[in-house]
Design brief:
The chain is α+β, with helices and mostly antiparallel strands. Helices cover 18% and strands 27% of the residues.
């Protein structure tokens, strides 16, 4: 990686400032690899829109029954020069075309003391561009939530050595009515000595706070959150805050381990069918296709859709030659 300083462009919709049409896709790294996900199914249901009662939106992810992680700049309104009151911050999980799995507002949120919303957008400031949102209701029981994997430099090296694919998922400005994901996007490395990652996930305005994650034993584990896009460095790169920065707070306030919804109405049936079909396991993606995949993957053969099956499918798809 070229070891020169670079400025960053805040990747969420800038509250109080218009974003030109030409900037909408700023953050696509080459070909647009974003795919629309069935947001009413777990694990996608744990990702939601952060909607302050002002202009713009960002993305957040549940990491406990009532705990969301997002980018700090999503909670500051530059037009009014104030942090949006907690009760005016809405979290809409599993959103698509005006429908959603769950919705509630915040009771409080935490922004690290090192973050200055009015300071220039630099990599140094980006290291503190994260926030916890405490929700009024335990909607995670309905939507499920992600685990949190402590992504350090050593952990990143191990993940890359093992070939475990990264996934980024969020509500992009140009596709704000649907959830998209970039499967198998590249997380390059930490930036210099900073606790900050450089990545090539297709995250654009609106994706601030969106999770970059991996699957372990079929379940999603957050590894970082996208917060910005490089402005002066070409080709364009994304910038994300690794979980190592805030994992202790998650363990204190949330859960740390992933959990599917308590009900089975969010089973990833559509997701499993589409992934099995893409892998050549039959057009319908029915029980026979699931049995065949589970057999090939060395999993317990049940023939049933489960919350962890998506993770196994994604890992298999991304590792396929």
């Amino acid at each position: 990686m070229k070891r020169t300083a670079f400025r960053v462009l805040i990747a969420g919709l800038l509250l109080g400032f218009p974003v030109q049409a030409a900037e909408i896709l700023d953050g696509i790294k080459g070909k647009d690899d974003r795919l629309t996900m069935a947001s009413g199914e777990y694990p996608w249901s744990a990702v939601g829109r952060v909607n302050p009662e002002t202009r713009g939106h960002c993305t957040g992810v549940l990491v406990g029954p009532a705990l969301v992680i997002t980018a700090a700049h999503c909670l500051y309104d530059k037009r009014k020069q104030w942090y949006v009151p907690a009760e005016q911050v809405h979290f809409v999980a599993g959103f698509r075309d005006g429908e959603f799995v769950a919705h509630t507002t915040a009771t409080q949120y935490f922004v690290p003391g090192g973050y200055d919303a009015l300071a220039p957008s630099t990599v140094g400031m980006a290291t503190n561009d994260w926030a916890f949102i405490v929700l009024r209701e335990n909607i995670g029981l309905k939507t499920g939530w992600f685990g949190v994997s402590n992504l350090s430099r050593n952990a990143l090296a191990t993940i890359k050595q093992q070939g475990v694919p990264f996934v980024q998922s969020g509500y992009s400005r140009d596709k704000k009515m649907e959830l998209t994901a970039h499967m198998g996007c590249e997380v390059e490395d930490f930036y210099r000595e900073l606790n900050l990652l450089v990545h090539r996930c297709d995250a654009v305005p609106g994706d601030s706070g969106s999770p970059i994650f991996i699957f372990k034993d079929g379940m999603p584990y957050l590894t970082s959150i996208h917060v910005a896009t490089t402005q002066s460095t070409k080709p364009v790169r994304g910038v994300s805050v690794p979980t190592e920065t805030f994992v202790r707070g998650v363990l204190e306030k949330g859960d740390g381990m992933p959990q599917g919804p308590i009900e089975e109405d969010l089973l990833p049936r559509e997701t499993v069918r589409s992934f099995l079909s893409a892998m050549g396991y039959g057009g319908s993606g029915g029980q026979d296709a699931i049995v065949q995949f589970q057999t090939d993957a060395g999993l317990a053969v049940t023939g049933k859709v489960s919350y962890d099956l998506v993770g196994y499918l994604i890992n298999a798809m991304m590792r396929a030659p």
